[in-house]
Design goal:
Elements: H1 2-24, H2 27-42, E1 46-48, E2 53-55, E3 59-64, E4 67-69, E5 81-83, E6 85-91, H3 92-96, E7 100-108, E8 111-117, E9 120-121, E10 156-172, E11 175-189, E12 196-204, E13 207-215, H4 218-222, E14 227-235, E15 238-246, E16 252-260, H5 263-269, E17 285-294, E18 298-308, E19 311-320, E20 326-337, E21 378-390, E22 393-395, E23 398-404, E24 408-418, E25 421-430, E26 436-447, H6 448-456, E27 461-474, H7 478-484, E28 486-499, H8 503-506, E29 516-519, E30 521-529, E31 532-541, E32 545-554, E33 559-568, E34 581-586, E35 591-594, H9 596-627, H10 635-656
Length: 660
């Protein structure tokens, strides 16, 4: 028994001497020994600088100064890990049992570079193969005789991982996919059957992004299997949550929920600063649905529900992450309110027809139009809505398709309901080299009074209209666009009313109709040039007469100079004459008066005709008296003269022959 005690004492003494020698060994010597062991086990170079301090029980630990850990031979030349300081501690008792229980890993200013290429990850490590070759059998792949089977590896767990001011880089097949700096990260995986939990924060414009995630089965995830994932992210202006499945490549599938209280701030936090989301399209947003994300940067959303400000949508969307993103979506909504979509771009002083900015008296807005939202994305969005309210007008049930391509938007109406009628065709807004707007539209069943009142403040003409319109305008303000308009079109109105003057009374029938003119139909074609609409073939049909029209409508200047010319279809009982009517002045208050110059011209022409006829009648009467006959028209004068000459010749011949 004494010998046993002496042997144990000697073993303890020897161990103490070894440990003491290690503790007293200079730091550079310890670092060299550790580097050699790491290389032997992993094949990677480990470089330690500064003092290296070790602890042995109960935690086998190491603390060092600046450190680098080499990358895989097939990866880039940059180290996989570097840090200004590193502290590692392993549970010594667990290590003796064959398990690796990492108590702590603490690094300051680390740079962690993870690379994946052809299914290999640079975090996968194994001891290098020895150069010994088999002899005897000649089979290089055959195991050596009596070689032992590989020992089963123990479990690996992590109690505490802390990275301060870290830079995280992820490279896939040589292409950087992620590069974040200023990251503080903590992770814990205390047991192989426990979930791995991680939290991280990173400074961004406007604050910090904080991420919390949980992977219930870390071993399966590390092996490349698809595993569950619960993730929560908060950022300046909003938050994102995900509950679903993920794989090692970062592909995801599950339920996603995005909430923002300030979408502009959240976009800025993710590198999209300077973007201003229009009111009604998600300055405050709540979007949920089933999301699938693939490693090529594609996101699909199904069973999507989006509440954007006061508007809500249902549908599906596909997004390609790019700059700008590409979006393909099919959405449906009830009543869509975009009346404040341009609010905030400039102060308003009232007047005009809207546009959210300073306006000239009785004119179009002079405020610059912010067309930058046209560059926010590319793609196609199909929308079906019960109604769509925009500044100054409201669409009824509509089926719209919006295509965006490099700051050029094309809105197709298939159809859209507006002013109680239907619009088909397309409208284009192009902001690639300055703003231009154009369109090619066909309208049917339009309430003309609603349309003219909304678009130009004209309230005197009503009826149900159909027509066509092609137009193009260029400018950075409403006023510039309206004054530059060019195009052409046609108008066809059924039975309608013109308020403010009575053509029946002006035609002298003696029957008024309450200061209005009721017509049976109205047709016209027109051209537009430099903001002026010109028409020369207007035809208005009434019961007893018609009215032709010609003139100019100033779309840019918001004025009119137009003449209606009534033409009697019946005798009208001699109670009056046709009186042309001239409409002239600003749209808001044009003057409507008989065109007396036309009346005078007509009366003068009639008087001249009367005088000419009177003189003609007197001349014919005088000639008849001289010729002793009755002459009623100029054609009878020649015959009468011939007859007179013939009679005189006969008389002269008889006298010559001596006869009476």
């Amino acid at each position: 028994m004494k010998w046993l005690i002496r042997i144990l004492f000697i073993l303890v003494a020897v161990a103490g001497l070894v440990i003491g020698a290690l503790l007293l060994m200079p730091g550079d010597k310890l670092g060299k020994i550790l580097a050699e062991q790491v290389k032997a086990q992993t094949g990677r170079e480990l470089t330690l600088s500064g003092d290296v301090r070790l602890s042995f029980w109960p935690v086998l630990g190491m603390e060092t100064g600046p450190v680098t850990f080499g990358n895989a031979p097939w990866a880039s030349s940059e180290p996989m890990l570097s840090a200004q300081s590193l502290a590692v501690g392993v549970d010594a008792s667990a290590l003796l049992a064959g398990d690796v229980r990492i108590r702590r890993v603490v690094a300051e200013d680390p740079v962690l570079r993870l690379e994946l290429s052809q299914g290999r990850g640079n975090w996968e490590m194994s001891a290098p193969q020895t150069g010994a070759s088999n002899t005897g059998s000649g089979n290089a792949d055959a195991p050596a005789p009596n070689s032992a089977a590989p020992a089963e590896t123990g479990t690996v767990t992590l109690d505490q991982l802390e990275l301060s001011n870290a830079r995280l880089v992820y490279v896939e097949n040589g292409v950087p996919q992620m590069d974040f700096s200023g990251v503080d990260l903590k992770a814990s995986w205390p047991d192989v059957t426990a979930p791995m939990k991680m939290s991280a924060s990173m400074l961004v414009p406007g604050g910090a992004v904080e991420v919390d995630l949980e992977i219930p089965d870390l071993p399966a995830f590390s092996s490349g299997a698809v595993t569950p994932l619960v993730l929560g992210l908060t950022a300046p202006g909003g938050e994102i949550s995900f509950d679903g499945r993920v794989n090692l490549a970062g592909e995801m599938d599950g339920k996603t929920h995005v909430r923002t209280t300030n979408t502009d701030a959240m976009l800025a936090a993710f590198g999209q600063g300077g973007v201003s989301v229009p009111m009604g399209l998600g300055r405050v947003a709540d979007v949920s649905g089933h999301m699938t994300y693939t490693k090529d940067g594609r996101i699909s959303l199904r069973d999507m529900r989006a509440v954007l400000d006061q508007n809500s949508f249902d549908g599906a969307a596909d997004i390609v992450i790019a700059s700008p993103p590409k979006i393909t979506a099919r959405l449906s909504t009830g009543d869509l309110d975009l009346t404040q979509a341009t609010a905030g771009s400039a102060p308003s002083s009232g007047g005009g027809t809207g546009g959210g900015g300073k306006q000239a008296p009785e004119g179009w807005s002079q405020a610059p139009i912010d067309a930058s939202p046209l560059s926010l994305a590319n793609g196609t969005i199909r929308l079906k809505a019960n109604s769509i309210a925009i500044p100054d007008m409201t669409f009824g049930p509509s089926d719209l398709s919006l295509s965006l391509d490099r700051s050029r938007a094309v809105l197709k109406m298939e159809p859209a309901t507006l002013f109680s009628g239907k619009l088909t065709g397309e409208v284009v807004a192009n902001n690639r080299n300055g703003l231009s707007v154009g369109g090619n539209l066909t309208a049917t069943g339009i309430d003309l009074k609603q349309a003219l009142t909304t678009l130009g403040g004209v309230e005197r003409l009503s009826g149900t209209a159909s027509g066509t319109l092609q137009f193009l305008g260029v400018g950075q303000t409403e006023a510039q666009i309206m004054r530059s308009l060019s195009g052409k079109g046609s108008l066809d109105v059924g039975k309608g009313v013109i308020s403010g003057f009575d053509l029946d009374r002006l035609m002298g029938r003696g029957e008024g109709s309450g200061g209005t003119t009721v017509f049976n139909s109205l047709t016209a074609t027109y051209t537009i040039q430099d903001g002026n609409l010109t028409n020369n073939d207007l035809l208005m049909q009434l019961d007893n007469f018609r009215a032709d029209g010609a003139g100019r409508v100033g779309l840019g200047a918001r004025d009119i100079d137009y003449v209606f010319t009534p033409v009697a279809l019946r005798a009208n009982g001699g109670n009056g004459i046709a009186v042309p009517v001239r409409i002239k002045g600003p749209w808001s208050d044009p003057s409507i008066k008989p065109d007396l110059s036309k009346v005078i011209e007509a009366a003068t022409e009639e008087k001249l005709k009367e005088l000419e006829q009177d003189a003609k009648d007197k001349a014919l009467k005088k000639v008849g008296e001289e010729l002793n006959t009755t002459i009623s028209d100029s054609e009878q004068v020649e015959d009468a003269l011939k007859q007179k000459l013939e009679d005189e010749a006969k008389k002269g011949l008889l006298k010559l022959l001596g006869r009476d």
